[in-house]
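To whoever is on call:

I kicked off a structure prediction for a single chain this morning and the downstream step that reads the tokens threw a length-mismatch warning. I double-checked the sequence; it's 705 residues and nothing unusual in it as far as I can see. Pasting both halves so you can look.
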Amino acid sequence: MKKMIVFAAVAMLGVFATTAVSAQTLEPTPDSIWDVDGTWVSGHTGSIRAMVWDFQELNGKVYVGGKFLEVVSAGRTTRIPQPFLAAFDRDSGAWVSTFTPQLDGAVYALDVRSDGKLLAAGEMTGGIVAVDPVSGAVDAAFNPQIENYWGRAAVFDIDVVGDEIYAGGSFRTSQGVELDRLAKLNAFSGDIDPNWTPKTDYDEGTARNAGELVWSLEADISRGRIYVTGKFGGIDGNLDAAYFAILDPETGEVRDDVPQGLPKGVLSHRLGDNGFSMWQHDVQLRGDTVFLGGQAHQTLIMDAATLTPRKSYFTNRGMGDEYAGGDTQVMYVGENTLWSGCHCWGSVGEYPLGSYVPMGQEMDFDIYKSFVVDFRDVNPFGQQPVRGAYGIDLETEELVPLTFDLLGQGGGWAMLEDSTGSLWVGGQFTQGGGSTRSGLVRFSAPIGDTDAVVEACEVSVVGDQLEITWDATGDSEAFIVRRSVNDGTVYWRGRISDGAGTFTDSNRSGVLKYFVEPRTGEISGEMVECGVDGPVTPGEPTPEGLTTTRIERTRIVLNWAESADVEIERDGEIVGTDSDRWYTDLDLAPGTSYSYRIRYQGTQTWSEAIQVMTLGTSPTGDIVAPVCSYSIAGGEVSVSWQELPNAQEVIVQREVNASGTWYWRGKVAAVDGAFSDTDRDGELVYRTKARYPNGDSEYTLCISN
């Protein structure tokens, strides 16, 4: 359910009280525990590789749900089939082999029923199942029969309140009751409440329309509210309730005594011709505070009474990262920390509310673009590196100065601070602590003391490599070796078993410093900087692994193996520098071949060149705007335009009742010459523009036939 553990409700089930572990004491390197892996083709999340979507702690175990097919040992030497739902020991991280549920679809949300049964929601038959937390046996008598008109239904979140379940996702019917992505049902019988049927409205966003769905919901029964987030343009015709809606828990009606939708003055955009959809992924509640996170790369802290924001944190391209900022995808309210999981590999910092637009106004896309550039380059508010997740102190509402050692693809989609204070992060990763990871990591705090001490640590040059050696006293099981370049970020380099006392690393350009830390279990000793046994002379190492991770019509994203200061050359000309393994080359020509290579700054040795061609065709011909017309008959709208020989696509938008807002309706191949749309109540006006390899035309109004 992507929420804090409600201890009062489940104390009888063996969930222990939380400890007062401070978030700042967590180790940034994940523990060596079991992982999950395996790709399953999903109706709603495609064929992306393994992902963890939710956690639930119960009786000393952590239950992990997601889109995976197997559990994987810490050393990745053992793989065991365990599709969609698994259990791990809360303290040791060991896989619980006796819990073997047999589910037929991905798990997106977990919660606990008052009788101790685990509820799992997702793409399995029925939408929600009740699972025995010991054996994993599924209760065949509980079947809400949540379905779609076509394809698999998906329940993305559930919140159990007493004997009731509030559910949201992508589904349309249950037990003969017409639904629209929201439902309320009995937690034991599975019966749908036929009188609680709020319906989402279509999101006609001008730039980003990906279909309606509810991502998350949170019950606030004391205030008579159900908070709902997702991709929707309103609820029951109330278009103010877009992306963030507040419903009545008894009737399902949109509350008329609180502001609906995203707060103004934050990084949300739905303003006129220059606005765009801005859906939200998660909502959380504690006491008098509501937390909201989603697109625009933000995590909001709001007063529950008025739903006005008082803090906003923004993840951005920065700290050497030019590839991705990152939407907030999940949040978790821990003992003393709000944890935020995101697709974020750059920087995070506070966005002072009202600093770019007054609090009573919305921010349009042009203002947003200016803000992003200023936030990254001017950095007036302070930023710190972020890797997949970050924390906000609940008392001070300031960033926790902690950067996790994670790399990945989709980033964090599930979080849990367990009752011992460890933080579990699920999602989609490629690496954590220098080791391959797929979808599950855990971060813990050192417990107790260790007498292990690193002594006589030195660095020397051996051929074309560097050798780090040390002696140690006390009881140590392993040593963690880290390195900084030119006094930059200290990066993990490796984990060495006790007794080796030697680590070999590749040489490279720059001022290098090494650090060694003893480790006994999960207890860390003092990290010691290594001295230099004679000068460490930079050689002429060659950057390795230069490749492309994204190729578009006018943009190419490069990636290489090591975080280091490099120069990037395109077609014989140096076009940029970077230090964090990613570089985005912008404003390129479609259908054009480019040659790239890189070298470490301060050296003359280039990597092997790679040849990359952008998508599309080379620019040819003039840009001609469509001359369009439209007609309405029999509930259908037909939009047509003249022949456009060199155009690739035509974009179609419409305005309803002279609202001043143009909504995206679709794009088709220019050669089709026509676009079909569905009629709706109100006065309709259409406009189109043509997309060419070398740019887009202006929008032109269509003539009504």
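Update from on-call: the warning came from a stale cache, not from the record. Cleared it. Sanity check on the structure: Residues 3-21, 270-274 have pLDDT under 50 and may be disordered.
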